[in-house]
Amino acid sequence: MLLALDLLGIFVFAISGGLVAVRNQLDIVGVVVLAMATGLGGGVIRDVLIGAVPPPALDDWRYLAVPAGAGLVTFLWHPAVERLERVMNVFDAAGLGMFCVAGALKAHDYGLGPAPAAALGMLTGIGGGVIRDLLAGRVPVVLRSGELYAIPALAGAAVAATGVELGVRPAVVVVPGAVLASGWRLLAFRKGWTAPAPRVSPPR
Amino acid sequence: MLLALDLLGIFVFAISGGLVAVRNQLDIVGVVVLAMATGLGGGVIRDVLIGAVPPPALDDWRYLAVPAGAGLVTFLWHPAVERLERVMNVFDAAGLGMFCVAGALKAHDYGLGPAPAAALGMLTGIGGGVIRDLLAGRVPVVLRSGELYAIPALAGAAVAATGVELGVRPAVVVVPGAVLASGWRLLAFRKGWTAPAPRVSPPR
Amino acid sequence: MLLALDLLGIFVFAISGGLVAVRNQLDIVGVVVLAMATGLGGGVIRDVLIGAVPPPALDDWRYLAVPAGAGLVTFLWHPAVERLERVMNVFDAAGLGMFCVAGALKAHDYGLGPAPAAALGMLTGIGGGVIRDLLAGRVPVVLRSGELYAIPALAGAAVAATGVELGVRPAVVVVPGAVLASGWRLLAFRKGWTAPAPRVSPPR
User: Fold this and answer.
1) What compartments host this protein (chains A, B, C) (predicted)?
2) ipTM
């Protein structure tokens, strides 16, 4: 059940990577590599930082097959995939919630305190998209668009990290953490809420 | 003997990094850093992912001296080095074959199954070039050019990874794996074979 | 005392990351993430390469709070921060000296020889800025500007790495290594000394 949810999140993230690759006119290698990097990148960065190597993504062939398949699907049928993009946003928000909570809990398991665990949870949620954008030659969307994406992820991860630090069982903190991150993200997307940008100084 | 071949592959990859740096008007630091990152990057990424740290590139001074020397050679005599570029393509294909097979075998040694080992073998072959291009501010060539580069590397790595998984001795799988990757790469380069790109949807 | 110096260096580097983010019109997430990546990136790369994971930056909340605070300060008061930039150059040079020496000594502690330790010391000093520039979508300044930044860092790290290799106590090699790197960097900045760039071949 958890594995299926995890693979679903990876699949959705990977589709977003494949679409960015298609739009930037990469070839089939680029589409599959961006799909895999987007689906797996956040978790792999977290695993390397906490010393959980080789990461599970390299221990179980399904973790490679799912994002590679998402890349091939996007390569072959990208016009159809693009028409599903509005629906995908719901799944992407769900994936974000799962990834940030799972990242925070795994960091806690490896002995990290609540603040680093929350930071690594956020990184698990946004890391794949950052790698995707770097490979596609653009400044990561999550750092510049003003969309509420990283902040809900950090909030959800912080709830989970604080909960387990206080002795609450992981299974209990998963739901509020993931719902907070996914719900806030989705509401912000629907309502157009944005994160603040620096006030621009007038040019001299 | 193996060490000499390995260092030769690193040298050739490093030259390609140095040339990209010169063409992008980097300074001497950029030329040497790009040479070293291109020569060593693929292997270092693999080693970090499987937990083989510190990587051998940091345990033996020759692994630093060879790509640093390649960078300095490129910095000082880049017009001459550029004239050798056609010859270099042969050595680059040979390096690709060695790197992808060595990467797959090392991943197998660290307990990875055949699919992840093949993926890491490919990553060993293409990783240095990806880092080179990111540092030079361009979308990695291997992801967009349509050249057959990553696919032959994956094929060669898959042959080696499957072979050792089936119990064949490493020394026996090296040759077919490397010859497949290098030969396919070189033939594709000569004949102009390309990997498919996504069909572009007509603009609406 | 050492912790305070370390945190000061991280703070100054983080401010430079925040300023680059503001100038590239990133949002608040981008400003804080670039500040943290610039302040912590060099040390984290070193720690991952030598196997010192989780890195101290994830074990002590102050290592996260200081660069995050620097990011928020830059976000809120960037016009004032920019006016301090000339002063900041002095602190940045001091941070560079400390980082390259501390990086070299830590690499030595993990069993690396003097050449790799010196290389990792330099990487500790410049790595954060490289990540900052990649995330901001520009070719790393340290690779192209011709400014003497990486070379003084390498020299300082080499002094420290060679010293401890010869049996000198770490406390004794810190000062000459850091003074060499910081002083050379600052003098070069003041006097406009530059590193050589490749001679450009005339276009054909």
Assistant:
1) Cell membrane
2) 0.94
